[in-house]
Amino acid sequence: MAEALISVVLQQLASIIKKQVKQEVRLVVDVKKEVAKLTHNFKAIQVVLENAEERQMKEVDVRYWLDSLKDVSYEMDDVLDEWSTEILKLRIQKKEAGNAKKVCFCIHAAWFCFGHQVVLRLDIARKIKELNETLALIANERLNYNFQPPKRGVEQIEQRKSSSFVDQTFGREVEKDVLVKKLLSESGQARPNFLVIPIVGMGGIGKTTLAQLAYNDERVQAHFDNRIWVCVSDPFDEIKIAKAIIDVLKKGTNIQASNELQTLLEIIVECVKGKKFLLVLDDVWNDEYRKWEPFKLALQNGAVGSSVLVTTRKEDVAMMMGASADTINLQELSDENCWKLFCHIALVDREISEYRTFEVIGKEIVKKCKGLPLVAKTLGGLMRHKKTRKEWEDVLKSKTWELDVVEKQVFQPLLLSYYDLASTDKCCLLYCVIFPKGYVIEKDNLIELWMSQNYLNLIGNKEKEEVGETYFDNLVTRSFFQEFEKDDLGYITRCKMHDVVHDFLQFLTKNECFVLEGEGGNKRIMEFNGENKARHLTLMFAPEGAFPISLYSCKNLRTLATFDSNISTFGRELISQLKCLRTLNLSFNSIKEVPNEVGELTHLRTLERLPEGIGKLINLQHLYVMGCFRLKLPKVIASFVGVSE
Fold this sequence. Notes:
Layout: H1 2-22, E1 25-27, H2 29-46, H3 49-55, H4 60-97, E2 103-105, E3 112-114, E4 117-119, H5 124-141, H6 173-184, E5 195-200, H7 207-215, H8 218-223, E6 226-233, H9 238-249, H10 261-272, E7 277-284, H11 289-299, E8 307-312, H12 315-320, E9 328-329, H13 335-346, H14 352-366, H15 373-383, H16 389-397, H17 404-409, H18 411-419, H19 423-431, E10 441-442, H20 443-452, H21 464-477, E11 482-486, E12 492-496, H22 499-508, E13 513-517, E14 536-540, E15 545-546, E16 559-563, E17 567-569, H23 572-576, E18 583-585, E19 606-608, E20 622-624
Parallel strand pairs: 1-2, 5-8, 5-9, 6-7, 7-8, 13-14, 14-16, 15-17, 16-18, 18-19, 19-20
Antiparallel strand pairs: 3-4, 10-12, 11-12
Helix pairs in contact: 1-2, 1-4, 1-19, 2-5, 4-5, 6-7, 9-10, 10-11, 13-15, 14-16, 19-21, 20-21
């Protein structure tokens, strides 16, 4: 998260400098120096951040260091947003006054007019200098941890190894039959090259297991002259992969001395020539065609009917290999099959009486699997050695994802997917935790929320909405979303997030993002004692009445959202605590009025329920009044463009 935040801050800084030049706003010398120092410090830290974020899982001191860095990054983002807002105010004033003269941006003084010059009250220079001093200390502290600049994000994570051997499986009979038919299909005989079949799905859904089932099928064994299994993972090491293929094709031949890719590919050409082969490339991440092309050319010498089976989390890999028509998109298991898999591990060799004792509790535990075989296996292994009913009940009642075994075995594969993302994509993904589990996410609304948090920066001539579409597509192709709804043209309009992915995101943001639920939906929610680190808060099932929690300790909140709530009052005191708020979502409550003090929320971009004070919100980008049947819209609303009703 720190890496993503720094990327956002640096982009924000570059954008502001561009604006101040365009608007003919001059910077005083001291500010120029502080901006240069700021950029230098952030970039010095940025080099080691991937390694630091990976190590925080095991090293508490590294986690504290990152927390300090995130705090400074958030504060700096707020200061830069104030700066950007003041430039916007100047632009509006110049436009209104029709004054084209230059404006001096002197950030040490208060607002006042001097001749034709406008001097701004911002204290931004002082704030930047103070934050820079803190940032410099953090930058120096990084030297104490011996961080290593990573070659690639996921390369530093311990990679999963795989083999062609398969254990007992449940619920993949249909998918296996489809896959085997593809491998044996006569339609493949008409192809000039080998057939490529990708299996695509999220981490832990059973892609490797399905490949193992097909690889070991008797019909498949009889169909191919050679079968080769290679665990690829990341990075895509051409030499290592080539040697693994040759080791199978030329059993017992010593080719380890050669490290020339050309030499190894020539050996592969000779080995597959005239032979019908099945090559399984398990866990492929790299979607660069130039990495795949040498192998594609070498394997074309195989006999007609040869196949390459690929497992991957990324649809980009399937498209890169030109196999979209034959792609198998793997879905979740049913609860029944998850239960069978769980029982096979947790209740094997138990007495009938024990089975009956644990069956009811076990089926409730299995509901937490949400169709992921990996979770069923992990929880099965956890319960295998628990002998009493109380031990089983304790696991059922516990916050499952706080268990070490789940954190290590379930979240590790998802961490690999997370670290494979670009920093901007990470920010956008983590923000999705503000939605409740099972929530139907409107794509356009999600992109607007990303905009409100300033996660979307212009790329070339693209508008922010287009950039948001790109980020959304990136997350889709990496299996972070599911259950898509599409329009008549086939474009995704709505989607959901798997519960386990949601739990994973909560795990990554547990000190910053909070989801609070009312007890039974009709009792007052307990006072929220979140620390200043709380940045995003979602409130569910809040009963009718005043806002049910205190936010005095949450002055840094950037998002406040309610779902399935019936709040009727949103007071001035509460507004005064939320100076950093970017998104305020009070949809479908019973609020009749939002205080004028909302106009003091300088950073606010997205708002529902509005007073006349909305006219002060010059940063406001999106306004929603869905379900606000009692709300009276102020006259000033007519001056806004792009408002949604």
